[in-house]
Structure formats: structure tokens, C-alpha cells
Amino acid sequence: MLSPNKQHDKGAAAEAEIDEPPRHTLTLSEGARPPTELERVFHYLDENGDGKISPTELHKCMTAAGEEISPEDARSAVESSDSDGDGLLGMEDFVKLVEAEGEEEKGRNLRDAFGMYATEGQGCITPSSLRRMLKRLGESRSVEECARMIQTFDLNGDGVLSFDEFKIMML
């Protein structure tokens, strides 16, 4: 039979085990911030844990995620953002690459939206093309009202919105 002291010691040890976090849990030091989403993605892509992403690692992970990227495109992506010339992406390089991709996508989305409004084949948004699109969206406006709306963002005063003027309007 255990002595009362040994039972107490055993209970304290069991209590200490319960209070300890599991070994696989990442614990942050006091005052440390949790990793950002980009940092988590970076560490996921960095399969060998060397703090850098190689073209092979980028290709392998992007392909596994369902993205269509060739090994050559992965190599080009790494080369275009590699700031120190080592052929690998550090964290800062990775952030630049992701931000550049995001800007490209925003530009494509704006271009697509502009194309929906510029329906008369003139490469610009006219009062009548704006009226037509607004009508499709359930907004009934006169051509005169649409002309006033366009005038607000018509920087060169030609009565229509170019893509550059549309971008400014959308910001």
C-alpha cells in the first residue's frame, strides 16, 4: 500500500501530466504573435524545412492543390521573385510572389467587369451601355442619369469611361 505522501506525489505527477500541453502542439513564447496565413502556407510549401521554397517544392505542392503549373512555370515564378539569386524563395520573396499574383487577378477581374459594361464594342462605357447593364441588374435609370453618373468619373471630359477611369471609380 502506498503511503499518504506517495499517493500525494503520484496525484501531483498525474495532475502535472494533465496540465502539460501535448508534445505535438506548437506553443508560442509569451508575447509572440501567431503565424499569418501566408506564413502557414510558406511553411507548408517548405517541405524540407530549410526556410526556403524550391521550384520543385512549389510545383509539387501547387499540383497537389489542383493548380495547373508546369515545372518550368514554377521555376520561372521562383526566379522572378528570388531577391538574393539563390534560386529559392525566402519568406519575403514568397510574399512578393503572392501579392503580384493577387494584383494580376484583380486586374483580370476589373477587365472582365469593364467588359460587361462596355457592351457597344467601343472599348468604353457609354451612358447607353451603362443604362443597359443597370437595367439587367434591376436598376432602372435614364440615359441622362447614366451620363451624370459617368461625368463624376470622366476625367478627360469625353462623356464616356475608359478602362483607366473605370479602375479609379472601382477603387
UniProtKB/TrEMBL annotation:
Keyword line: Calcium, Metal-binding, Repeat
Keyword match Transcription: no
Compositionally skewed regions (Basic and acidic residues) per UniProt: 1-12
Gene3D superfamilies in the cross-refs: EF-hand
One matching Pfam family: EF-hand_7
Region (Disordered) residue spans: 1-35, 67-88
Residue intervals of the EF-hand domain: 33-68, 69-104, 141-171
Domain of life: Eukaryota
SUPFAM superfamilies for the chain: EF-hand (SSF47473)
Alphabetical list of InterPro entries matching this protein: Centrin_CML-like, EF-hand-dom_pair, EF_Hand_1_Ca_BS, EF_hand_dom
GO MF assignments: calcium ion binding
Role: Potential calcium sensor that binds calcium in vitro.
Protein name: EF-hand domain-containing protein
Organism, as annotated: Musa balbisiana
